[in-house]
Amino acid sequence: MDKILIVDDDERLCRMLTRRMQRQGYDTFSACTLLEGLDKATTDFFDVIFLDVEMPDGDGLEFLAKFKKTPSSPEVIIITGQGDPDGAEKAIKNGAWGYVEKPDIINEIGLHLNRALQYRREKKRAQMVPLQLKRQNIIGSGREISYCLDLLAQASVSDISVHISGETGTGKEVFARAIHVNSCQAANNFVVVDCASLPETLIESTLFGHVKGAFTGADKAADGLVKQADGGTLFLDEVGELPLNTQKSFLRVLQERSYRPVGATQEIFSDFRLVSATNQNLEEMVKAGTFRKDLLFRLQAFSIDLPPLRERVEDIKELVTYFMDKFYRRYGQTESKGLGPNFLSTLVAYDWPGNIRELSQALEQAYARAANSPTLFSYYLPEVIRINQARRLVKGKPHSGASQDSINPTAELPTWREYKDECEKEYLNKALLQAHGNISTASNMAALSRTRLYQLLKKYELLE
Amino acid sequence: MKVYLYSGQHEAGSKFRLLVLKQLGPDCLKSFANISEMLSSLALSLKSKDIVILFVETLRELEELLLVQETFDDVRLILILPQRDQLTVAKGHRLRPRYLTFIDSNMSGVYGVVEKMLMMHPD
Ligand SMILES: Nc1ncnc2c1ncn2[C@@H]1O[C@H](COP(=O)(O)OP(=O)(O)OP(=O)(O)O)[C@@H](O)[C@H]1O
Ligand SMILES: [Mg+2]
Asked: Is A65 in contact with A59 (CB distance < 8 Å)?
């Protein structure tokens, strides 16, 4: 049985939560001071600890590391005061699994607890199963993509819900498929739900199926996609497009694993792994009231944020080789083409708003235009890319971010990756400085999602 | 944005083709009655996010399409299957359709989806 400890000086709240958790089958204990809590955590074996910040004998956050180091390495969820983003941020930085605001705790404790316990189980399982990842044509070996592949491997060994974010063309669908192929659901269906393409009138019956005569045009009973995904993976693509009332129905499916087809009286059961993706900012949508917060919680049990191509230019060469090989077979040619002198540097200098998809299209266009010529010159690339390169050369300085003063013309040239990492780190430091260390502000200034910013800060070890 | 339709050589497919044609008009639609003809035409012209509708009347055609699954990698595929049994549906999902239905269904769903897809990426 999972063991829970609540450390809070509000005795009434402790009693209420303890009773509630016990009713749900958790072995629950409470402590009213930090020292009492720490004592219990050291001598017993807890899975999850809820820790209040304002305690009579100190600041809960100061004790966070100590709680985490107790023998069971528990997941710690911080209980913060209402509307205290700094406290929440500090909690995460200090290795808390999550945080919950005090007025919400009664309603949300179950959800937080479930996610933390699920994560803990997955973590244990992932530690036991070394995975030989099938990469499924995911090309690239730079640090950014390798980090995402690590996450992919971790996600694959479990059946935790995974949310994949990233700009258009960064490979969200490719990753979703790779999760499926590497998971124990692989033998069953990978079912795509394209939330952006389904008209609102069709979405519920497509997802949940319907009985005969449920609506005009329902001449036959039909299974929905949720049923077809039973035992496999349901991929909710463009999930931000899901209408609010369908979000509600879908949340229920996630909670209960059962649902009612349109017009049916009987519930149907379906057990699937959920992967979702979007390039929209769901947190913003929650704020705007167009996406349900509770659904977002469920989707994001595990998140992977795919980097845009301009942040992983070290992979461009490998991608080019991969695509050229593909085109040379597609165009039925006997020999692959060589690359002209500035070809790669032109690609590296471009911003790639359409990411890998745009790269593949640009290369294919160049390939087709080069026709029988054995060499691909930059000249064959789409105009917008060539113009970018030309402007850059005229200005005589790197196009983006790269800081001018960090390259001394007489010093030995660093590798591209070293240089890029250096600039990125410098940028992050500046952003943190200007944002006075506030992650939300920094992520707004940098136009990065918070998750992405955290990933980068973690990568450069800038999180104390 | 072009819509490509494979509707085979049987009667139901031909009827369906006429209906799609009526909905989209001849400029927007390119249709095929033969898989290899479609493949050689699509190989060099298909672009990401293009819409491809496959109206599959026999299991043999489905098998043939599965062999060239890669062709439909980055397009928006609408798949109409001949049968509703689990095995056929499982094979259908290997093509990763964005909308899946059956030849004996009401086709209004397909039209609705095509319309919405065209709206999302009008060019
Ligand atoms: N790492 C990669 N290696 C090789 N090809 C890739 C990689 N990532 C993506 N691609 C290719 O780029 C194209 C776009 O990928 P995908 O459809 O997964 O992007 P997406 O993030 O889902 O985009 P959108 O938001 O527009 O739907 C596909 O053709 C895919 O095969
Ligand atoms: Mg996609």
From this structure: no
